[in-house]
Amino acid sequence: VYIYLGCTLSQSFNPDFHHSPVIKMGWLHKTPPQGTLVFQKRWVMLDAQYLRYFQNEKEVYSKRIIAILSVTKVLNVGGQKFEVVTRNRTFLFRAENNSKLLKETIQQHCNSMEKSLMNSSDTRGQRASRVSLISKQGYLEMSGLRSKLYVVICADSVFLYRNAEEHSQGVGITSIEMNLGTVKGTDKRSFNLTTIYRTFSFVAESEQQREQWVEVLQACVSHSLSSNAVAQKIWSEEANQRCADCGAPHPDWASVNLCVVLCKCCAGVHRGLGQSVSKVRSLKMDENAWTENQLFLLLGNDKVNLFWAANIPPSEMLCPSSDSEERQRFVTAKYCQGKYRCYHALFGQQEALNKALCNTIQTGDVLETLSLVFCGADVNCYTGDPELPSPVSVAQHYGQTLQVEFLTHNHNTGRSNETKAALPISHTGYLFKTASSTRAVTEHFSRRWCSLNQGNFSYYESEKSSSQSGQMKMSDVLCLVVNPQGKHGYGHSFELYHDSGRVYLFGEDSPDTVREWIKVIGKALVPPVAEDLVGWSFERVGRLRYTVGQSFHCPCLGWFSLGGSRLLLLLHGEDQVDNIDLRKLQELSVEQEAGAVVLVDRGRRLRLEGDRRPDYQGWLSGIQQGLGRGDGPLDQQQLTETEVPVIVDRCISYITQHGLKSEGIYRRCGVNSKIAALLLSLRHDARQVRLSEGVCQVDNVANVLKRFLREVGEGVFNGHQASLPWLHTTSDERRERVSQYKALLHSLPPVNRATLGAVINHLYCVQCFADENQMNMHNLAIVFGPTLFQTDGTDNSAGQVVEELIQNYQDIFNVSGSAVSAEELVCEVLRRGNIPPQQGDYWSCFLVNDNQEMERPLHYQERALAIYFSLGKDCHLVVKRNCYMEAMLIYIAAMVDVSRNSMIKFSDEKGQRGKRTFSRRLCVLDGTSLRLYKEVKVTEDGRRMCSTQPERECQVHALKVYYGIKKRLQPPSCWGMTVVCEQAERDKQQWYLCCESKNELIKWLATFMNLQVVSFCVTETYSTFLTAVVKPSKFRHRAFCSCHYGNSGGQ
Ligand SMILES: [Zn+2]
């Protein structure tokens, strides 16, 4: 049965009509009773006794009224939804899709409901009395409805239910307050119940029944009027006939400590501030609490407002039709912050205030007491009189009962910790504005006086206009867009995207004017913690919903600002603004269907949701423009983490993997059509291009790199002018020129510098294989000179410069100083291999000899690159799991003495001429040194005697321990280790020590490791075996990264 008691007010809703102050109201979506999942938008209102929902915000009579007492629980069921559960029915609500603060709204609703539920324990008694207050109940026909309604007259309200069951379940249609109603019989069986909003026509079952109903209803009306007695008395003071805050008539609530009489709406806000600020009482319901009405008669709203509302700017005045947000803001400012109060002359002088208070309370001047207390006097201060220590006792002593009442009400109000108001943002001035539209239109600008104040942006015909021609709350503005200069006909313009989907366009020719507006609007738009978002030359700033990771549910609200390639963001719950360089995004995908865009940045997946709103399109195209363009100069390209254009990086990686040994690499010409096509696709979106191995492919890729470098805007050397000093270095001396190159390199923009470094590094690598590829430094320089300098090649100075750059690569680019530690290297390899850390696995970077016979895990702090450059061609670096590590750590954990001595099989290089060169030694390792003792003899009882002088000795710090022994030495077991002793540069020795079991080896290795600092490895780990290999020769880490990249198992 669909029952709709349509009755709307022409003006905005007047909740004056309800009994209790409204705790919360707003739009929510609700499933219809049929249980389909189509949500309907409903205006929902919660007070202490009932949860009601309405067709819309102007409706007077609800569609449904749910007694809080019948609610058993409120469940936050995730996402934007919550359930209100009664014994018989569950109501599912969802916060509005475009609601400003989804989660907060739901949470608040839930909290409010919970609170009401909690309070219902106090109202149980009331319920009992409510039941007894039912003066009549039964079925009645109502005109316009086919089925009868179950009508209950209770106290001074009439409740309508669909049936008697609903009544017992506490879920009804609506309630009609009778205090302003009249009842009249119209026919034999019918009668009208008339309120100021509408007339309800009922038909009783019989004439007799009709008479009973009318009689009871009339009694109900007079009862409701009689409960006005207190109110009437309070209202006898004329100043109390209007709400102290908004001026609404017949205010029937009061704040007993602030001494103001209030309307229901304002009382609701007061209640929200908490008892410590405002103690709210009903004039009608809390009859017993009204002994203090004398105080209200003495003071009255007008006199009290002389204090509280001494300085209200007209723009901030509240009126009866103000909405709840304005009310909230005003009431908070007025009472919490004391923003409009009349400051007492003694303000700020605590001692003097307290003293004045103690004097004033002896008199009848409650108003002065109020002024003192709310300007900082301490109600609980010590009076100096041990007989009458507190102000209350003084007032009692002097018989000032009203003073006592006032002091008592403010006994525990927290005046001392007043909240400091944030510096209010306000700005005014003329701007040209178009009519708002769903898109920004360019014509019909008109000049308007604009004002930003207290989070409200309003505009007027002129400075002198008193009534605004339009207004928007900053909290409803989704996005501020700064237009490029000259767009829309004005020198400078900006757009505001409103929650309603409308766009407002403002313009001015003066850049300063617009800049100032953008600054203040930006600040007013974002939360204070997000101020960094607007402290730069952004192009747009605003809020968007987003999810992080794979979760599609529960989007949060984040703040973003975008300009060029920079996206700043403040995610929900964070207190620091984060920064994304869009050029370095790992991935960007647009979900056209869903209206969302997914960004992957440094491994983090961020999905921005657009809701198909106009502002989203702007975000999307702004982000896409910031990604980097293949046809732009270097610094507008897609970039790697190291600021090298992705195109360059892709090509170099490919050649490193497949082309280093290719004869004539970079000199052969490749297939022109393929080169052009490949370059085109790389320029379109380099990140999406995967270069696959194929015939001639290396030459095509090599030519793509050359062509890109030759054609890229401004070139690697940042334009013709900037490239000249490179070509005309003045010195003949190599050293001089190298330092000049260094200085020039330093003056390049970061992306150019990184690109040049990557290219020269690559050429350095290529020439390392000159034996195979026939491309030595000189040959490469002939090719790359004109390419990098973008010259025609007639002048060979370009080639000379490039040759010198390659020649002095390590010097100029400071490669030897590169401080990549073994740990950083391992982490980087694991990151690139996308290997998540796992418990119980240990990764190390190993220095491995060519036959993989011996390997040494680098200490985590060792400089991997320095070692790498020092390697001979028969060694390489490998990042892999350290299979001994776990056992070693277990041994170390149980170790008592950090030393070891036992017999061990020993050999050294000198012994390799003959076979079976391993012989027994006593091996002693402690904190100082490793010592080997020759066996002298075996005693009769089997004890082995050793010489007292060590045969060999090496300081612990000079030892490097490798796992394994060269096979050609024919070690007696496979549990060997090679100890390299570097005590003196000229005295580098290798000792070969061989254990009898794995366990024995682990004990030795663990002891070595423990003595040489425990952390050898990265403790983050992995279960499957994966190795990244650094190839031999002398080029930079780029080489092994690319070896590894996309090729996670191999060499
Ligand atoms: Zn009010």
TrEMBL record:
Keywords: GTPase activation, Metal-binding, Zinc, Zinc-finger
Rho-GAP domain location: 637-813
The organism's place on the tree of life at top rank: Eukaryota
An annotated Gene Ontology molecular function: GTPase activator activity
Entry-linked InterPro entries: Arf-Rho-GAP_ANK-PH_domain (IPR052227), ARFGAP/RecO (IPR037278), ArfGAP_dom (IPR001164), ArfGAP_dom_sf (IPR038508), PH-like_dom_sf (IPR011993), PH_domain (IPR001849), RA_dom (IPR000159), Rho_GTPase_activation_prot (IPR008936)
GO cellular component: cytoplasm
Location of the Ras-associating domain: 821-884
SMART domains to which the protein is assigned, alphabetical: ArfGap, PH, RhoGAP
Coiled coil feature spans: none
One Pfam family from the record: RhoGAP
All copies of domain Arf-GAP, residue ranges: 228-335
GO process terms (BP): regulation of cell shape; signal transduction
Domain PH: from-to ranges: 21-222, 424-526
Alphabetized PANTHER family for the sequence: ARF-GAP WITH RHO-GAP DOMAIN, ANK REPEAT AND PH DOMAIN-CONTAINING PROTEIN 1 (PTHR45899:SF3), RHO GTPASE ACTIVATING PROTEIN AT 15B, ISOFORM C (PTHR45899)
Name of the protein in its database record: ArfGAP with RhoGAP domain, ankyrin repeat and PH domain 1
Native source organism of the sequence: Oncorhynchus kisutch
Annotated gene: ARAP1
